[in-house]
Amino acid sequence: MDPIRNPYAPGAGQRPPELAGRDEQLHAFDVVLERIARGRPERSIVLTGLRGVGKTVLLNALRSAAVRAHWGTGKLEARPDQGLRRPLSAALHVAVRELGHPAGDQVDHVLGVIKAFAQRDSAPGAKLRDKWNPGIDAPAAIGRADSGDIEIDLVELLTDVGGLAADVGRGVAIFIDEMQDLSADDVSAICAACHEISQSGLPVIVVGAGLPHLPAVLSASKSYSERLFRYQRIDRLDRAAADLALVAPAGDEDAAFEPEALEALYAATAGYPYFVQAYGKVAWDVAPRSPITAQDVAVSAPEAEAELAVGFFGSRFERATPAEREYLRAMADAAQGLAEAGEEVDETESVPTASVAQVLDRKPQSLSPARDALLKKGLIYSGERGRIAFTVPHFGRYLRTQG
């Protein structure tokens, strides 16, 4: 089949041609936007899930919905080695410009507050030429969002931005990807700011996305975070949605799948959106003609698995040190041991940390540095005390095939 017309898109954060299985989240967000526009109270939103389930794609789709509602929007991706001030300032700069507030002096004041918030990230006593400039022409405000206490400053900043949005009868939405990588102080500041904004009734919301342990990160920061956010777990697609993600784009290109081919693809991908796109792309390229058959899927599977081994699994494994790789392999072996003993093991292969230590014949305390480093790199997470799991589905299976 013509590879130029191949509709599938197995890219990181790249929107697939058919965003299947996410109608519920999209509809719920439309309701949130409308309620806030009417002055009704609403909570900020947190999306959680494993790697490859489409959190970033959904986050971008929600931002598009906010743009269509004429909201001001900004997006940032959290990084463990970066504070919140600079990326958030850049995101809010974009959001304020999108609002299109008619009063230039009020806009300049808020932009000045954003600039002051951003420049507080510079070292104390830094000269003007050494201070980071967020690209804002307005002079930095004095005495607003520049105390140096991120919690106080963020509350003041979002209050001013929210007031600007309320003036024009719209809202501001800030989208934060990889939210679990924020520092503890920054997480605490976001929780405090969202709490204050919700009490004030200002039209500002935060939409965050992160790994499954993100709710625990938020809860550890502020006890009221469980009531502050609307949590939505983003999971793999069911059979109907996975079929739709394959069939609809193919239909747009006058192609089709045989039922047996769809069954084989679901068995191979388990409904994980990234895998669906990866297998679908290779199956299209391999198939000589439409409809794509189960035999085409079987022929294409090794190539799809090889691509995932390099781009999806291998790239993450390469980020680990030798000691960390040893820990990862021990997790995979421990999960296999539990499965052989008759225990149920899910796609994240959650295992007790004691089992990992047993595989390596080491004391659990001696493995803490490797485990903590893997947690910080986002390769594993702790869903409950004393257990550890992969953030990437089928990662254990990949490790066991590497010998």
Question: How would you concisely characterize the structure shown here?
Answer:
The chain is of the alpha/beta class and 403 residues long. The protein has 16 helices and eight strands.
Structure description:
The chain has 3 domains: 23-233, 3-Layer(aba) Sandwich (Rossmann fold); 237-317; 322-401, Arc Repressor Mutant, subunit A. The chain has 403 residues and is α/β, with parallel strands linked by helices. The chain has helices spanning 23-37, 55-68, 85-99, 104-119, 150-167, 184-200, 214-221, 225-228, 239-252, 259-269, 273-286, 294-317, 322-340, 353-360, 368-376, 395-401; strands spanning 44-48, 72-77, 172-177, 204-210, 229-233, 351-352, 380-381, 387-390. The strands form 2 sheets. Strands 2-3-4-1-5 form a 5-stranded parallel sheet, sandwiched between helices. 43% of the residues are buried.
Low-confidence stretches: none
Mean pLDDT: 91
Q: What do we call the CATH topology of the largest domain?
A: Rossmann fold
Helical content band: 40-55%
List strands and helices in order, with pairings.
Elements: H1 23-37, E1 44-48, H2 55-68, E2 72-77, H3 85-99, H4 104-119, H5 150-167, E3 172-177, H6 184-200, E4 204-210, H7 214-221, H8 225-228, E5 229-233, H9 239-252, H10 259-269, H11 273-286, H12 294-317, H13 322-340, E6 351-352, H14 353-360, H15 368-376, E7 380-381, E8 387-390, H16 395-401
Parallel strand pairs: 1-4, 1-5, 2-3, 3-4
Antiparallel strand pairs: 6-8, 7-8
Helix pairs in contact: 1-2, 3-4, 3-5, 4-5, 5-6, 10-11, 10-12, 11-12, 13-14, 13-16
